[in-house]
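Reviewer 2 asked us to include a model.

Predict the structure of this chain.
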Amino acid sequence: MRDKRLLLCAILLSLPAVGLVFGGIYFIYDKVPELIKNEKVRVREEYRTSAEMLHACEVDKNRVINQYKPKTVPRISYKMKPGRWGFDVGRDSTIVWYDDRKNISAFEVEKVNVFDFGLFFYIGGVLVMVFFVAMTIFGIMYFWKFVKERDDFLAATAHDLTTPLIGLRYAIGRNEEDARSLNERMLRLVENIKDFLKLGTRRIPEKKPFDALKAYNEAYKIFAADYRDLFDGNDVEIEFDRDENSFTALGDETLAIQIMWNLLGNDLKYAAPYGKVKVCFSKEKSHMKISFVDEGQGMTERQMKKAFDRYYRASTVLKSGKGGFGIGLCTAREFARSMGGDLVLTKNVPNGCIFTLTLPCAGNFIK
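Predicted model (structure tokens):
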């Protein structure tokens, strides 16, 4: 329905240009030949007046050229009793002549200015039409881009606020501290939206040290009850590549939690009903990795390539009825990259997927 409305708007925007083009074509093919013909008649009448003056001997005799022989008599001669007349157009002037059947008299006159309707309308008109068509196309492209960016913003806003709102709904009346924390997160997201409106993009994320494991635990609290229902009372398993269980990342904690919300929410909908889900914390050089490993249905190669495309939803997701806007993974990767990290997708052998969130380290593992 949305695409149909956009198409209708694009058609309406193009109507003035289409009308101009058809009107221009009609004018060029129907009216311009008549204008050219009228201009030729006007020029001929100008020279006819000069020829009549020559015939009546109302010109300076010193300017008369006797025994002038026209170069192409059949082409430029016209009947004018009791003889013929014509004119030879030169570069700067024109010779008008008259044949009284005895001899030919001629004299030099100023060249009559001729307006080239053909050149003006055929070339100028076409250029004007091309200009209006091009401007219309650019206008439609800008309109389409504006609508898409607006819809992207609205979809991203709805997606960003849905998860904390759901968590806040469960937290209210159960744990005031959880409700307060979720409320703070929502306020930060609203600030992101305000900056988006002012700057045309999301604000540059704050880069401060934060405990990545603590951020994960905060994100997981929203889904903990649902995961326990699926896993017979057990939580999502957490693994570390060392004995330490806490470490510090450098970035925006709110955005990091938002990324984890997306990944945990996706695993809960698409992977957890089919198998085990675990989260692995590791460190590699100056970056730390948080891998969300599932044993679900997995993705095809094509689906994996398009997983981070905006609005992309796999056919299996559409059939399940659990799909959202198709922007969660896209925004999650944008958030990760804005903090100097990344979000990548790989296959889990034999079944499932692995989403790996990479974040810069603020220091060594905290002991």
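The chain has a mean pLDDT of 78. Residues 235 and 244 are 19 Å apart (CA to CA). We have added this to the supplementary material.
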